[in-house]
Each structure stands twice: as structure tokens, then as C-alpha cells.
Design a protein that fits this description.
four-stranded mixed β-sheet, 11 helices, 16 strands, alpha+beta, 402 residues, six-stranded antiparallel β-sheet
């Protein structure tokens, strides 16, 4: 089946009041189907037909060098729980363990050469570990790497995600994580709108949030890939020294959460998302490693309180109330305010126990989205800000106008 066209797309970009979209599909037997749906999500790869319907660009570049990929079983030993990177003046070699005793060998190819198991074996012998032989090939492929992202992730009721929105080098293995996070970001927002738990304007946050992440991932993987491909003795020596220093100093360990997407944050766009005044939280948010609005709520606090982690039902919205002492009045105030939005559950934490993970020891709150990111943070004098944020994300309380 393939998409022929989309009908009813509102090119003004609005969602509220815009009609549903009709997808015109062609089946393998030539039959034409017209399907009317409230939303279209294109996850149809780098050659996305849905992206083409949006009319936006796919900006970036394609690397000149070809790359070889061989999945194979081996004779010898390779660690089953590590990704191995080998750098040499001839190029890079990456080895990643896959399930079932299979290993993926990935390498740049010299100009004019074609991929084969024999050629990959020679690359392993020249650049990689000793005593490893490729025995049973499962997959052999040659491809080119692109560094591209869409200029538009959304137009009205039509969205794109995954490779349809961004393609880049496999450096760091960030492609799968980024695509899944696209889907996660969009899924809970569409669900909230369809169930009447949020205004349709919530969906307009998908494009800006995920486009910013895609630009960063494409940039970071491009830097890593160009580091693999440097040529000339001086450039190779400088790269190797930098990699050794990063490994010995522990910088690679610090970068792992970045590659996993655990350090990404969606920047605050409204004053009501952050505490009032110029207290320590404002200063700390500007320091490296400081917890900021838009970042993921610390996992060591989220898991014990059901804000994140496995469960039969998604966590939904959480209002984490940090309390100093008994704070009976503060708990009552925040619970009374949040009661107008039944989809928000309230979690109490002591301000002291939260300080080590959040950096904030003041009495206050964290409004946490269903995807685990912090939507807003404030202190005990910021209940008006909390009300404004709950209204923005989830719509006004029924009867509030009266």
C-alpha cells in the first residue's frame, strides 16, 4: 500500500476547527481507498510521502564515503554487552553485539570498494581486535549516510516522526531512541486531545520540541562521524589524543546519558513555567548539569512514586509537591488547586529528600508531563503560576468562566 495524496490538509497550520484529513491510498492490487481520519502520522522513512505532502524541506547533506555493514556470527571472543570503537588512519570500525550471538560490524569503505564478508574480515584484521573471524553472515549491506532533518514536523493535523523527520549517522546509536521519543512525545498529546483532556493547541508543541532535538542529534552525530573520517597524520593524531583523554577522564561516561536522550530538555517558553523572582533555582538552571524546566524529572524520585517506570497504565500528569516539615496548609492549597483537573495526581515529597536530585530544597512543586518531562516548577508563592500552567496544558476548569 502507498499514499497517493492527502486531502483536506489545512495549510494555515491550525488544528481547532480544521476538518479531518482524507488519505488516498493505493493497494497492491490497484484498488484505491479513501480513509478519513482526525490525524495523520507519517513514519514512512527517509523517502516519506507524508513529508512530501507537507511541502517542507529535508535539509542537510550526504557523506561522500560509502559505509559497509555486516551482521555475522564469529569465531573468537567479543564482549556481548559492549559497543567497541576502533580508530585508525584507514578509518573507523564499530562492533556492536546483537541478540542470538550475532555481531554487527560497521565501517567506512575506501573509495571504489564494495562490501563483502571477506572485505570486512580484512578491515577487522587491520583495524580491530585480534583473533576474531566472521563465520556465518546474516546480513551484508552497503549504504550512504545522510545528515538531514525536516524543516516542518507538523502541519495542522498531519505529523511526521522517526526517519521521516530526521536521518543521520548511526554514531552513538541515537536513531532508534530519537524516533521512539518522537512517538512518545506525540502519542500522549494526541491521546489527551482525543479524550477531551487537553485543548488541541497542545499538539502545536510537538513540532518545535522535537525539531530542536533532531537538529541537536543530527549535529552531534555529524561531529562524531567526521571525527571517524578525518585524514592526514596531524588530524588523525589530534583525534586519537582527544579520544584517549576523553576515555581516561571519564567524559565518555558523562556523554552516555546524552546519547540515550536522558539529558534532553524542552526549553521553557512562558514565564509561568519557572519560579518567580531571582532565587537560586534560576541561577542553578543556567549551570551545567542543573535541573531545568523541560528536562526529565529525576528517575530516582520518579520510580518509587509511580511517576515513571513499568505499570499497567501510563503515569499521566503528576504534581509533585515538595513540603518543608508538616506543611499541612501548603498540601491543602496545592491539592485544592489541582482538584479541578482530575487527570492530575498529586505526589508529596519532603523538600529535603528532593534536594539531592533536584537541587531545590524550597517548598514548592514540579508539574510533570506524562512523558516524564517537567512542564513547570515553582515555589510556595507561585500558586498563580501553577494555575496558569495547568490551564495552558489541560484547559480551563469546567465552569471557571462563571
Amino acid at each position: 500500500m502507498r499514499l497517493l495524496t492527502l486531502e483536506g490538509v489545512d495549510f494555515s497550520g491550525r488544528i481547532e476547527g480544521a476538518p479531518d484529513v482524507t488519505a488516498v491510498l493505493e493497494h497492491g492490487d490497484g484498488r484505491i481507498e479513501r480513509t478519513r481520519v482526525p490525524f495523520v502520522v507519517g513514519t514512512d522513512g527517509a523517502g516519506s510521502a507524508v513529508r512530501a505532502q507537507l511541502g517542507g524541506g529535508f535539509t542537510g547533506s550526504t557523506y561522500e564515503s560509502a559505509f559497509a555493514l555486516v551482521d555475522a556470527r564469529i569465531e573468537g571472543f567479543l564482549p556481548p554487552d559492549q559497543a567497541l570503537y576502533y580508530q585508525s588512519s584507514a578509518g573507523a570500525l564499530v562492533i556492536v553485539a546483537l541478540p542470538g550471538g550475532v555481531f554487527r560490524f560497521f565501517s567506512s569503505l575506501p573509495a571504489g570498494e564494495k562490501v563483502s564478508v571477506e572485505r570486512m574480515q580484512k578491515i577487522v584484521d587491520e583495524r580491530g581486535p585480534r583473533g576474531v573471524r566472521l563465520t556465518e553472515p546474516v546480513w551484508v549491506s552497503e549504504f550512504r549516510i545522510h545528515a538531514r532533518h525536516a524543516t516542518e514536523f507538523q502541519l495542522g493535523r498531519v505529523f511526521i516522526a522517526g526517519d521521516a523527520a530526521h536521518v543521520h549517522s548511526p554514531a552513538g546509536g541515537q536513531g532508534l531512541n530519537t524516533g521512539i521519543q518522537d512517538a512518545h512525545n506525540l502519542a500522549w498529546k494526541i491521546a489527551a486531545v482525543l479524550h477531551g483532556q487537553a485543548p488541541s493547541a497542545l499538539l502545536l508543541t510537538y513540532g518545535p520540541e522535537r525539531a530542536a532535538v533532531a537538529r541537536r542529534v543530527v549535529r552531534d552525530t555529524d561531529i562524531q562521524t567526521r571525527g571517524w573520517m578525518v585524514q592526514g597524520p596531524a588530524a588523525v593524531a589530534a583525534r586519537d589524543i582527544a579520544f584517549r583523554l576523553a576515555e581516561r577522564s571519564g567524559l565518555f561516561g558523562l556523554y552516555a546519558p546524552v546519547m540515550a536522550g536522558r539529558r534532553l530538555a524542552y526549553p521553557a517558553t512562558r514565564a509561568t513555567q519557572v519560579p518567580s523572582g531571582r532565587g537560586p533555582c534560576r541561577l542553578r538552571s543556567k549551570l551545567p548539569g542543573g535541573l531545568v524546566v523541560g528536562a526529565v524529572f529525576p528517575r530516582e524520585l520518579a520510580l518509587p512514586h509511580g511517576i515513571a517506570g513499568p505499570g499497567e497504565q501510563p503515569a499521566g500528569w503528576s504534581l509533585v509537591v515538595t513540603c518543608a516539615g508538616d506543611a499541612v496548609a501548603w498540601r491543602s492549597q496545592t491539592r485544592a488547586l489541582a482538584a479541578g483537573w482530575p487527570q492530575v495526581r498529586t505526589v508529596d515529597l519532603s523538600a529535603g529528600s528532593a534536594r539531592a536530585s533536584t537541587g531545590c530544597g524550597q517548598q514548592g512543586y514540579y508539574l510533570v508531563r506524562p512523558d516524564g518531562h517537567i512542564a513547570a516548577h515553582g515555589h510556595s508563592g507561585d500558586l498563580d503560576r501553577l494555575h496558569a500552567e495547568l490551564t495552558w496544558w489541560l484547559g480551563p476548569v469546567a465552569g471557571a468562566a462563571r
